[in-house]
Amino acid sequence: MNTESAIALEKVSKRHGSGSQAITAVSEVSLRVPYGQFLAITGPSGSGKSTLLNLIAGLEGPSSGRVFLAERDLTRLSDDDRSRLRLEHIGFVFQSFNLLPTFTVEENVAWPLEFLGIGWRGARRRATSALARVGLEAARRRRPAELSGGEQQRVAIARALVTEPALLLADEPTGNLDSCTGQAVLELLRALNVERRVTIVMVTHSPVAAAYAQRTVELRDGRVVGDAAVGHADARRGREGETTHGTYPQ
Questions:
Q1: I need a surface site. Which of 38, 128, 156, 246 has the fewest CB within 10 A?
Q2: Residues 11-36: pLDDT tens digits?
Q3: Residue 117: phi, psi to the nearest 5?
Q4: Which of 113, 139, 142, 141 is nearest to 126 (CA)?
């Protein structure tokens, strides 16, 4: 396995069911993602994008093949070891935000640190720092229901960053946002990649969103049918004619 790869998949397949009823979601995928790369996984609905992301995260095990994360073979780790690896090395951003409605913004961001054994004072300090990165430090006492969709997604990104992960996995992070708000979230992800060298793997069906990445991998019927360098400059071409209302989404 190439130790320069944050992620490496070797002939990975994932099948659901058995016998004649088996469905192949991912088929013979080999992929390497270097540290510090921003990768977009694209393809139509049902192409295997989210399954592939779950395999990378160790949330699902492959039916065959091997998955390496942070240079460790996930197929040889126990469930507890995989959970610990996710907690220490991966931040997750989802389409639906997944914020706890009864928690404040600060508490939503800080709670993953509890599982790392960090006390509340230290967790609060790190949550404040993460919120400052996404421009929401002033909203730390508010509840998710008091925030716009774009603000909630920024809270979700702050929560993903609070553990200082080397890898950020984003599953359709702009799927529930309007185009302007989604653009600002994508700008934030790109800034994290460029300025902090966070490795990002983003699943998206949007060509405009994919243009923010450095590289795109296209899936169809569970197979890789395209793998191309994009470059962040292409994002500007993808946004021609669009306008931005401020630095961060509202």
A1: 246
A2: 999 998 887 788 999 999 999 999 99
A3: 80, 20
A4: 113
**Number of residues that make up the chain:** 250
- In degrees rounded to 5, what are phi and psi of residue 170? -125, 120
DSSP notation for 166-178: SEEEEESTTTTS-
Domains in the chain with CATH codes: 5-100+166-238 (3.40.50.300)
Place of tokens 């088929």: 27
Q: How far is CA 83 from CA 49, 59, 74, 141, 199, in A?
A: 21, 9, 10, 30, 19
Angstrom distance (rounded) from CA 154 to CA 147:
10
| Distance between CA atoms of residues 220 and 69, nearest Å | 24
Write the CB contacts of 64 (distance below 8 Å, at least 6 apart in sequence). 11, 12, 13
3-state secondary structure of 52: helix
For the stretch 167-215, pLDDT in tens is 999 999 998 888 888 999 999 999 999 998 999 999 999 999 999 999 9
Measured from the Cβ of residue 63, the count of other Cβ atoms closer than 10 Å reads: 16
Residue 89: count of CB within 10 angstroms of its CB: 18
Pairing of strands 23-34, 72-73: unpaired
